[in-house]
Structure formats: C-alpha cells, structure tokens
Amino acid sequence: MAKKTLLILAFTSLFIGLAAADWNILDQKWRKARRNSLKNYCESWRINVELNNIREFEVVPQECVDYIKKYMISSQYKADSERAIEEVTLYLSSCCPFESDGKDAWIFDVDDTLISTIPYFKKHGFGGEKVNSTSLEAWMKERKAPALDHTLKLFHEIKDRGVKIFLISSRRETLRSPTVDNLINVGCHGWTSLILRSLDDEYMHVQQYKSQVRKRLVDQGYRIWGIIGDQWSSLKGQPDAKRTFKLPNSIYYLS
C-alpha cells in the first residue's frame, strides 16, 4: 500500500511539474505576443501621426511613451531626419531657377527643426504629459537647445545659394532674445528674419498664424521655394510653397 501511495505521489509531482513548465512556456509566449502587439500598435500610432491621420492629440498614449522615447533618441530618428534632408538636397539640385533680385525665399521652423527640444522632454515625460508652456518657456530661456546638425548644414547650403531664409516660429515674441542667442550659439546665423508670435496673433492656431506670415512674404514679392518643419501646421495652408518637407516628431502636436 505504501509503495502504491509513493508511486501515485511521484506521478502527481511529475504531472504538476510538467504542467507548471508548460504554463511558464505559455506565459512567456503570451507576454512576448503582448509586447509585440503593443509595439505594433505604438509604431502604427507614430506613423499615423507623421501621416497627419492622428491630429490634435494632447499627450502620447501612456502605453506608447517608452516606444516614442526610444524612437526619438534612436539612430532611426536620426536616419529618418537625414533622409528627409537628402530629399531637400535632391529637390534643390534641379528645382529652382533662382534669380538675383533678392526675392528667392525658403522657410524654416525653429524648434525640432533647427534646434532640438528633446533634452527638455527627456525630463518631462516624452509626450506622456500635457505640455506645460510655462515650464517649456523657462527651459527655452536657458538657451541650451542643441542644434539638429543635418538641418543646420542644409540651412547654410541654402543660404550660400543667395536664398533669403525666414525663420517662422510658434515661440512668443517675449522669447526673441534667448531664441536669437540659442540659434547663434549653435552656429545658425545669417537668416533674413526671425518671425515670432506677437500679442495680436498669440491666440491664433499655429497654422493660421504661419499662413498669414507667408501671405505677407508673398505680398512683398518673395517666391517661397520650400518649407521645412516638424509640424504639419508649419506646412499646411495658403499660400503654400513649391515644396514642403516634414521632419519626424511624435512627441507633441501644434494645430
């Protein structure tokens, strides 16, 4: 009887052990499948932001914050940005019969186009928190935003062709001094004009404000050959340019 009991206990232990092993394997497979599913979802979310299908979001979905962070500090973000700049260079090689009348123009955005806000967002949730304008502007006043080297190189290439460069930013006019200092400190100089938001247009949508600025330039006789920016609001609206080029940015949305 004792021998039979021992055999039963042994088989039971073996069964439980196998079942536990199977459960662990299934659990690991489930966790891996869940991670892959979440990664696919977050990658899809990011791509649809870039395609302008997802608009006017206030925060990055919490489950995707880590994925957006990894992308924005990754070699892939750098490669995507550099690829966009290559397309600008290709366009410039044959696009534009520049004239010598001083009316050929190109528009650059500032934040996350010429200089980067990533150091700020590293400390503020990488899009998982609503943007605190007071905190962000305090950081901008420190004049420490690093250059985006690939765009800065393009800036100088276009300037050296004799094209007038206009920097149109959604920053407020009160930030002019730190913005100028920051740009000069990273080697961005020689633009024709830096245009910031005045009290009159502070409450406009960014797209409307930037469209109005472009209209003023066109009314002054400028030919806008291109615009480069990281937000759709910098590129859309009338009058438009001959070509527009968007840099990647999934952290925030300016409408």
Automatic annotation (TrEMBL):
Endpoints of the signal sequence: 1-21
One Pfam family cited in the UniProt record for this chain: Acid_phosphat_B
Keywords: Glycoprotein, Signal, Storage protein
Classification via InterPro entries: Acid_phosphat_B-like, Acid_phosphatase_pln, APS1/VSP, HAD-like_sf, HAD_sf
GO molecular function terms listed in the Swiss-Prot or TrEMBL record: acid phosphatase activity; nutrient reservoir activity
Recorded coiled-coil stretches: none
Task of the protein: May function as somatic storage protein during early seedling development.
Gene that produces this protein: LOC111305337
Originating species: Durio zibethinus
Family indicated by similarity: Belongs to the APS1/VSP family.
Name used for this protein in its record: Acid phosphatase 1-like
